């Protein structure tokens, strides 16, 4: 029994086996680091100018599209992805919520993720029950005064789609691939039979899901102060950023494969 009384988890870890296990079962994700956007000022003195207005994220910021984060330095990272269901301890600790995922990056690769970084899965998954979309909403009403950068024949999606599972409008009319084109980027483009502008439709699709990183506030050291590697929570982007910008950026139109090649 080494390190009696030392900080840590108080259990024996077989680091070599753990590293091998992760290596064997690792999945590849696209990793982009989160950088605070300059539209919100954290500096104490500068933040007080103009009654603290500088501290608020600018919802019409052309750099971050109003989310307050810039995503930079894309690269691939490998790690083991598991469902929150198999991590009951993190649910019990209040760190995670059902629907989150857990990510354990490979050891000794110099990879250190931080909160608000973004991971994009390189395999397609179903977007649960799909998305309800108002045809042409990006260019309707008050949105017409916004620079959404979404064309009239396009609607914006949460994630970059790979294939349609089902598409049906509020009148029960069904649509198939060919009536529309999915992508490139986070878009559906209508080219044939289509819902009238202002009509609601449901698109259930498979997509490259994006996840926002939360690093739990627990140290991952064993009782001999050996670093056990990061254990990271991933929350779906559309859940983490509920109030997402209506804008679409040039980056949003780039396919995942092109971003992987960065
Ligand atoms: Zn900004």
Strand line-up across the major sheet: 1-2-3-13-12-4
Shape descriptor: globular
User: What Rg is obtained from the alpha carbons, in whole angstroms?
Assistant: 22 Å
Order of secondary-structure elements: HEHEHEEEEEEEEEEEHH
- Topology, number of strands: 13
**What is the mean pLDDT?**
86
Portion in beta strands: 25-35%
Domain count: the total is 2
Class from helix and strand fractions: mainly beta
Report the end-to-end length measured between terminal Cα atoms.
Answer: 48 Å
Spans of at least 5 consecutive residues whose pLDDT stays below 50 are 1-6
Sheet having the most strands:
6 strands, antiparallel, barrel
Give the cofactors and ligands.
Answer: zinc ion
Helical amount: 10-25%
Tally of separate helices: 5
Brief sketch in words of this structure:
This protein has two domains: 15-124 and 210-260, no CATH class; 128-208, no CATH class. Helices cover 11% and strands 30% of the residues. It has helices at 15-25, 44-47, 88-92, 237-240, 256-260; strands at 27-36, 69-83, 101-105, 118-121, 125-126, 131-134, 154-156, 160-169, 180-182, 187-190, 200-208, 210-214, 232-236.
Describe the structure.
By secondary structure, the chain is mostly beta strands. It has two domains: 15-124 and 210-260, no CATH class; 128-208, no CATH class. Helix content is 11%, strand content 30%. It has helices at 15-25, 44-47, 88-92, 237-240, 256-260; strands spanning 27-36, 69-83, 101-105, 118-121, 125-126, 131-134, 154-156, 160-169, 180-182, 187-190, 200-208, 210-214, 232-236. The strands form three sheets. A six-stranded antiparallel beta barrel has the order 1-2-3-13-12-4. Strand 9 and strand 10 form a beta hairpin. It is globular. Zinc ion binds at residues 37, 39, 58, 61, 63-64, 68.
């Amino acid at each position: 029994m080494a390190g009696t009384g030392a900080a840590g988890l108080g259990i024996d870890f077989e680091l070599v086996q753990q590293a091998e296990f992760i290596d064997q079962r690792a999945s590849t994700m696209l990793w982009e680091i989160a950088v605070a956007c300059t539209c919100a000022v954290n500096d104490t003195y500068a933040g007080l100018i103009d009654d603290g207005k500088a501290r608020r994220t600018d919802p019409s910021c052309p750099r971050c599209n109003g989310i307050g984060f810039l995503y930079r330095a894309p690269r691939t990272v490998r790690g083991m992805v598991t469902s929150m269901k198999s991590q009951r301890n993190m649910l019990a600790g209040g760190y995670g919520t059902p629907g989150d995922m857990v990510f354990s990056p490979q050891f000794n690769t110099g990879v250190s993720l931080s909160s608000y970084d973004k991971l994009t899965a390189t395999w397609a998954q179903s977007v649960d029950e799909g998305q309800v979309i108002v045809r042409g909403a990006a260019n309707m009403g008050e949105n017409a005064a916004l620079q959404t950068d979404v064309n009239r024949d396009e609607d914006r999606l949460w994630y970059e789609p790979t294939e349609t599972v089902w598409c049906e409008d509020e009148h029960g009319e069904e649509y198939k691939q060919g009536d529309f084109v999915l992508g490139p980027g986070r878009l559906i483009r209508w080219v044939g039979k289509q819902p009238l502008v202002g009509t609601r439709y449901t698109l259930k699709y498979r997509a490259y899901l994006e996840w926002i990183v939360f690093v739990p506030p627990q140290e991952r050291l064993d009782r001999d102060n050996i670093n056990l590697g990061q254990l990271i929570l991933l929350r779906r982007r559309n859940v983490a950023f509920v109030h997402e910008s209506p804008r679409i950026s040039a980056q949003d139109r780039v396919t995942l494969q092109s971003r992987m090649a960065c």
